[in-house]
Amino acid sequence: METFKKLLKLSRSEWPLLAWGLVFLAISSAALLVYPHSIKRIIDEAIAQKDQSQLNVAAFIALGVFAIQSVTSALRYYFFTLAGEKTVKRLRARLFTQIMGQNITFFDQQKTGELLGRLSSDTAVLQNALSVNISMLVRSLVQALGGLVMLFMTSAKLTVFILVIIPPLGLLAAKFGKKVKAISKRSQDALAASSGVAEEGISGVRTVKSFAQENFENNRYDQRLEVSFGLSKEKIRVVASFTNLVSLVGLSAVVFIIWYGGTLVIREELSVGTLTSFLLYVITVAFSVGMLGSLWTDFMSAYGASGRIFELLEKPTEDIETGLAHIEAGQIEFQDVHFAYPSRPEFPVLKGVSFSIFPNETVAVVGSSGAGKSTLVQMLMRFYETTSGSILIDGHDSKSYSLKGLRESIGLVSQEPVLVSESLFENIRYGKPEATISEVQSAAKKAFAHDFITSFPDGYETLVGERGVQLSGGQKQRVAIARALLKNPRILVLDEATSALDAESEHLVQKALEDQIGKRSTLIIAHRLSTVKRADKILVMQEGRVVQVGTHAELFKQESGLYHKLVERQFENSKETL
Questions:
Q1: Residues contacting residue 225 through CB under 8 Å, at least 6 positions apart
Q2: Between 503-514 and 473-486, two packed helices, what is the crossing angle to 10 degrees?
Q3: How far apart are CA 380 and CA 391, in angstroms?
Q4: Structural contact between residues 350 and 524, judged by C-beta atoms closer than 8 angstroms
Q5: Which residue has the higher pLDDT, 205 or 471?
Q6: Partners of 357 in the beta sheet?
Q7: Which residues touch 345 (CB under 8 Å, ≥6 apart)?
Q8: Which terminal Cβ of the chain has fewer Cβ within 10 Å, N or C?
Q9: Is the separation of the CB atoms in 397 and 390 below 8 Å?
Q10: Cα Dmax for the chain
Q11: Which domains does the chain have, with CATH numbers?
């Protein structure tokens, strides 16, 4: 009942459409209930009395009733279905907004495929329930109840028998419906799990093919599908058993009615027209009750899917608006910051990190893999909150800024930038949605991306493909830099921005970045020491701690220090001159 209330509340905007649907439903149902009575008149008053004119009039009236019923039935379907489609459209939009509003910890714990399953398969099940099925449900209810009233008016004796059958059928429907609901929820969970496996395989197809593991992924997906299929098969068995039972009872009831009704006709206690009319009403009621049974199982499936959807809709989202609107100067101070990822609380990543970045200062962070360098970026962006300690920005705790204001004031360029499958213009403008073409071009020139963009036949309207696959690594990186610079951020964060590039691409990206040094507070996370030697200050991290601080020259002189060892190791590997 609680879920039904939630669905009703969700469809409140479509109540006018539903009201019109109910009006036409009432008219079409009334017309359908009048039809058997018209047949009774034809048989008892026209055919029995051999009156051609009366037969013509009765037939004409029956055709009129059919015409009204067909038109109003179509209108009933139109309004109910339109209301359902609009409700589901709004539900999908709300669900996507809700997903996007969750914090990073939520995404760490959820598979992308499962979330996509809720947006697609779960809402598709709900879509049927809120559109066509709800129309059929109301129609079947009206026709079943209206048919019972007409049965009483036609023959009370025969109707008593019908009423003896209905309650047991209702109990059976409730019992089977409960089973279907439980199976449907498990089936939707299994289907979402299979979607998760499929999403992983497709998104990582290059890795799959590079290891020739197509068969492994196929088998993994088949195993998940087998679980989903097993549950679907169980649901089909339950529904088939219920349908079989209802069909057997219903047809047996018709046989009994024909036998008992025929007996009453022979005794002249009932006319042939009345018996025919009664049988038509029985068929109407039986069809409606059968439809209700079928719809009941569908609604139980939708109930299971809606539970998964509302579980997500009711999950609290991040508050991105409350707090200071934006960063002014860009001064950053980490004060004894400790942190462990929520998924691995027993493994601390940062252990008392403290350092400062002054306005327009460039600070680089180096260290071996796993030292906690990229985690500093996660903390600065407030993707996660500190376990203890604090991060100050312009003298204010970072938590006092709104998430929107904080993140809009920081330009982030990561090692593997993700582009949306739109044009280059839209990808750069992602950093400032209201930007003009001249602003976009200016940002592209600063990032040394303008020349390669204008070399394409479609220029800034060139589509980049999914995740930017149509571009090279260096091109993607320069688009990402242009996107970050378009924001004109007070703080620029470069997280391994050149580590995956070839020498030529790195040179162009370095030129783009060096042009920005000194114009804003810049935090550089890097492996390649050529990226960091021009920094105002270098932080050396080891096992979650800052173990050295200084300029390149100062740190390199400390031969026993970690920085000197890192430089020597890289020099040996790449023969790079510093």
A1: 194
A2: 10
A3: 7
A4: no
A5: 471
A6: 332
A7: none
A8: N
A9: yes
A10: 121
A11: 2-313 (1.20.1560.10), 332-409+489-574 (3.40.50.300), 419-477 (no CATH)
Distance CA 478, CA 516 (A): 13
Which of the pair, 537 or 55, is modelled with greater confidence? 537
pLDDT of residue 578: 40
The CA distance from 513 to 413, in Å, is 10
- Sheet of strand 362-367, all strands in order from the earlier edge strand to the far edge: 410-413, 491-495, 521-525, 362-367, 537-542, 545-550
Burial string for 372-385 (b: 16+ CB within 10 Å, else e) reads: bbbbbbbbbbbbbe
Each residue's pLDDT tens digit, 442-452: 989 888 888 88
For residue range 69-117, list pLDDT tens digits in order.
888 888 888 888 888 788 778 888 888 888 888 888 888 777 777 777 7
- Please compute, for residue 487, the number of CA atoms within 13 A of its CA located in the half-sphere on the CB side: 26
Q: Are 538 and 357 in contact (CB under 8 A)?
A: no
- Which tens digit of pLDDT belongs to each residue from 251-279? 677 777 778 778 877 887 778 877 778 77
3-state secondary structure of 265: helix
C-alpha 561 chain-centroid distance: 50
Q: What is the CA radius of gyration of the chain?
A: 35
Q: How far is CA 184 from the centre of its chain?
A: 19
Q: Name which of 397, 408, 250, 340 is nearest 544 in CA terms.
A: 340
Q: Which helix (H) or strand (E) holds 56?
A: helix 52-100
Q: What is the DSSP letter of 539?
A: E
Contact 520, 369 (CB under 8 A): no
Q: How many CB atoms lie within 10 A of CB 294?
A: 18
Two tokens, residue 10: 């969700």
Residues 6+ apart with CB under 8 A from 116: 195, 199
Tokens 């999908």 belong to: 92
